[in-house]
Amino acid sequence: MGRVSRRAFAVAALSAFTMAPGASAAPVPSGARTPPTAPGPAAVPSARSVATGMRGMWLATVANRDWPTRPGLRAAEQRAELVEHLDTAVRHRLNTVIFQVRPAADALWPSAYEPWSQYLSGSQGRDPGWDPLGTAVKEAHARGLELHAWFNPYRVATHDDPAQLVPTHPARKHPEWVVPYGGKLYYNPGLPEVRAFVQDAMMDAVEKYAVDGVHFDDYFYPYPVAGRSFGDGGTYSTHGSGFATRDAWRRDNIDLLVRETAARVKKVRPAARFGVSPFGVWRNAATDAKGSDTRAGVQTYDDLYADTRKWVREGWLDYIVPQLYWHVGQDAADYAKLVPWWAQVAKGSRTQLYVGEALYKAGDPAQPAAWQDPAELSRHLTLAREHPEVRGHVFFAAKDIADDRIGAMARVRADHYARAAGTPRQDG
């Protein structure tokens, strides 16, 4: 999640499979401006005592995927579109919105560390005239929704030209922090000063706003690009002593990011929960006996250096949302096999398991026949109900919920969300 378009890259991850053995209102910072108040929120359902687990949706901003519909809209227009997404969540009896507020080393709030996002004004660093994150927290809470702030830790840009960044951008000031790879720019996760900086940049939002959660997507080290190597050899030589391999050192770098962020979130905002939504395959069983019965071309442990299973078993996360973006019966990665695998991983841990659902595939003519059936997603929830470790679902993404091309979300609501949503915490 979190490249130019999470939909596009989830499709890319699927294409990487191989068939042979072996993807309370927030305080608004001083000086922030808010446009005129829009019409009041949709009525909040009254049945708040019902324990329903997670019913979430991702609201992606990278490349204007879900919101705003295009950069450069007036502040009042942007605000109205954002509020409509929150109202849509309420109409579908959801209880959580995971809002992407740092899509690419930028900010959807007046940040002390990074420039305003270009996806708001069309020009990186330009003040959009209002505070999207502050407004989202306030308006979500007014509707009985939780608001989780979604951050991409290491992506700097979806292009590879530093000159396109605003001159005051930290990546311009510290070019030694940046690694170009696969046509994009990334911060180097192996540099301790980078790890400290990206945490400080994210925690700026956590300190300022009463967010209910802090959320990372699946991008740690970048997804592999054929024929390219990530240029951190010098960093490994300097900082990798004590590790037998560069892979082990890279995994430790990401472990540190996760552990340190979890501790900082808990210290600054104890009520907020910290979660990650990784690519759905940790390792294939052909690679590791503890892995899933899959034949994925991407494995988070080996390719993204994210030991997601360890994070759950060690209790570093409050929740995990593996992106199980495949249909029941998919050959290389079967939803019906991955759900019980993740349930077993979560069993006995303190980490709550939610399942990431590919609503964006429903009705997409480029997808296989299973995704042309409006009942496919409803079957997912029925299957997951057999595993008590699964405490809810999160749907990708907001635009697809609003459009609901073939009525798949309406079917989920009718079959599984007949009653109003309580908050996820009421689930235990």
UniProtKB/TrEMBL annotation:
UniProt keyword Iron-sulfur present: no
Pfam families with a match to the protein in the record: GHL10 (PF02638)
Residues annotated as domain Glycosyl hydrolase-like: 54-367
Keyword Signal carried by entry: yes
Source organism superkingdom: Bacteria
Gene3D superfamilies linked: Glycosidases
Keywords for this protein: Signal
Region Disordered: start-end pairs: 22-47
Coiled coil: none
Signal sequence, start to end: 1-25
PANTHER family in alphabetical order: GLYCOSYL HYDROLASE DIGH
The name this protein goes by in its record: Family 10 glycosylhydrolase
Source organism: Streptomyces marokkonensis
